[in-house]
UniProtKB/TrEMBL annotation:
Native organism taxonomy: Bacteria, Pseudomonadati, Pseudomonadota, Gammaproteobacteria, Oceanospirillales
Superkingdom of source: Bacteria
Record's keyword terms, sorted: Ion transport, Membrane, Transmembrane, Transmembrane helix, Transport, Zinc, Zinc transport
Its membrane topology: Multi-pass membrane protein
UniProt-recorded name of the protein: CDF family cobalt/cadmium/zinc transporter
Residues in Cation efflux protein transmembrane domain copies: 23-195
Subcellular localization, as worded in the UniProt entry: Membrane
UniProt organism field: Alcanivorax hongdengensis A-11-3
Length: 208
């Protein structure tokens, strides 16, 4: 029964908790900024990136809750995070499909400008988390989310430039599709690691 209790020796240090709180606040702020601008401008790429920030905010909140919990509960939290990323990917995919049927061209300079702001936010987050990128499914999921955000931001910046040069909405739409794929890839990676970590918990705690 002892192994089913929270294992204090695996608790994250206070510095990790502080880093998570800081990154959570950064992501929440950027979600508000990007979803507002994305909705007003009609940019699917910004809206997709905003959902990415929202998903990460939820991920960091779950990770903070999971710290100090038993291994079984940490695995449950990882599965919830993986599932939420999958749902986000489907939402972005649906929004992108709707954009294919439209003809409005979002403002390229605005897309790139907000994308650059988001990149600065994510690089700051990565700087706070880089010391903790190796760990269990929960800790690794946090690193994956921030890393993927930075990659997505670069794509958003490029989309804005291409929209400006081409006068077409397609770069914006295609980047939104790519972000949907990134959501799905991350979800699968997190769920697979949680599954790999499951046997030890099942044998020790009866699969609880």
């Amino acid at each position: 029964m002892a192994c089913c209790e929270p294992e204090l020796k695996e608790s994250a240090p206070p510095s990790y908790r502080r880093a998570l709180v800081g990154v959570l606040l950064i992501n929440l702020l950027m979600f508000v900024v990007e979803i507002s601008v994305g909705w007003l401008s009609g940019s699917r790429a910004l809206r997709a990136d905003a959902l990415d920030f929202l998903g990460d905010t939820a991920t960091y909140g779950l990770t903070l809750w999971a710290l100090g919990q038993s291994q079984a509960w940490r695995l449950r939290a990882a599965r919830i995070k993986g599932g939420s990323l999958l749902v986000m990917g489907l939402l972005v995919l649906a929004d992108s499909v709707r954009a294919v049927l439209g003809d409005a061209v979002p403002p390229g300079p605005l897309i790139s400008g907000i994308g650059a702001l988001a990149l600065v936010a994510n690089l700051t987050s990565l700087g706070l988390l880089v010391r903790y990128r190796h760990g269990d499914a929960n800790i690794r999921s946090v690193w994956l989310c921030s890393r993927n955000d930075a990659v997505a931001n670069l794509a958003v910046i490029a989309a804005g430039a291409l929209v400006l040069v081409s006068g077409s909405r397609w770069p914006d739409v295609l980047v939104a599709f790519a972000i949907a794929g990134l959501f799905t890839h991350s979800a699968v990676a997190i769920l697979r690691q949680a599954r790999r970590e499951q046997p030890a918990t099942s044998s020790c705690c009866g699969g609880q």
